[in-house]
Amino acid sequence: MAQKMTKVKPDDDRTVPDFGKMYHVKGVISLPSYEIEEPFEAWYDFERNRSRIDYYNGTVCTFLIGNDLDYGAIYQIRPVLPTNDIKCFQLKGTKEEPIQPQSAMPDVQGFEFEKMDYHKGSRCEVWKTVTEAGHKKNTYRLWVTRPEGNDAPATPHRFEMEGFNTLLDSHNDKYSIEYSDFCTQSEPDVFTPPAGFTCEEFPDPPEEHQILANPIQDYVSTNPVSHAHRMFGPFKEKFNRQYKSEKEHEKREINFVQSFRFVNSTNRKGLSFTVGINDRADWSRAETRKYC
Fold this sequence. Notes:
By secondary structure, the chain is α+β, with helices and mostly antiparallel strands. The chain contains six helices and 13 strands. This is Counting factor associated protein D-like isoform X1.
């Protein structure tokens, strides 16, 4: 499906924000539809082709090492039920899809300056882009400051996505990332996965491996058809879903994407139980509550 980029307006003399080739930042991913607040901490080193992102205060640690093996590798250290033993999972890069360091901020190429706005007491530049694919129209905004001037690395404060479905004529998707403690340095030893583990492949289904190994990728991407959206096809096939109309299909896909994000975020908490995608994953929350 072709993706269309909609320009906002010509910017002034401001340059597109750049966060530098090395940084450390903390943040919180917010999913209002499921009342999820997921803290993370990220380290990024572009020059050495590596990054690390920890979720829920280090419960799940993800290392993306672009120089490892032939085409890079992702290593994830996490507790596994029923014993909550700590295990290592590995996803190898390929020639077609090599592993690269994962930024905690969006790629701002294509963003344009929209306005100045205050965010939590800081006067920020707001950068915006709009993408469209099919009935999906997503608006992305990024709030940044420039403590040391226009040519120095910018400091991120907030990233927000609001989705609109043109067929349903409604806003149907929203999430945000609040950033804090940004600095343009990073300790070298944080990029080394802990020793003593024998890493195994991520558990089935294989089509979920990418989002399990690199969860933040879907949130900072500005592609309106996310990996979560692409998982709707296998879900429909597995549960033999056939919807009566295109509108119903759009509604069910929205429900599924939100359920999918909730399931994966909940399973990163390191709780005494896990949740999974079942035959009600395309239900609305109201339908689910009525069933229970």
